[in-house]
Prior knowledge:
The protein has helices at about 1-10, 25-40, 50-60, 80-85, 90-95, 110-135, 145-150, 160-165, 175-185, 205-210; strands at about 45-50, 140-145, 170-175. By secondary structure, it is mainly alpha-helical. Strands 1-2-3 form a three-stranded parallel β-sheet. The longest helix has 26 residues, at about 110-135. It is globular, with a radius of gyration of 19 Å. It starts with a helix and ends with a helix.
Amino acid sequence: WPQLLAKELGEQKFHMVNAGISGSDPIFELHLLGKSIEKYTPDLVILAINQSDIDDIIVRGGLERYDEKGSLHYASSPWWSPFYANSFLVRHIAHDFFHYNWLLIKEMEMEERKRIAIDQMHQAIERFESLAISNNFKLLVVIHPTLEELKSGTMELQPLLDKLGGSKGVFVLNLMDNFSEQIRLESTSPEEYYWPVDRHHNEKGYGLFA
């Protein structure tokens, strides 16, 4: 979508830098922006996030994953995770007897872990906002729906949207509204905007995203 957006805006007038990294999350992007901001001096930074970033932060940790020297330290995994990685029997026991999910977290703990992850995401966006103020650029946070969210009409990041609603220094765009309206206007289905296997946007989805 960054290339499609640059084309829409007019590549002669705007220079678009795609600094997104596949599989990244807002904490990584904050760290990357802090290291590269002097090189690029952006006028506008677009931070695009979705529901999958919640799981990424649950697994990797929040701002604390970087120490004072900037070294990366992931959140620790359960002591038995090497056995889980190499044994179908251990996976069966973990999932069906002890009720761990695929993130190796007990299902009863997930709602609280999600709440904490969303708080950590909000803290990261506040750091983005501080960078925007001190470096004189505008910050746009774009939240885009997964296929399941588009079909249900609810977003798991709604608590984050609520938190950002009171911020004056962050522009927020919820693409759920845009996708839902396009589906209504064209009488299409949500599946037409996503690949059926990996559930990322297809060409039509990224075109609407842009």
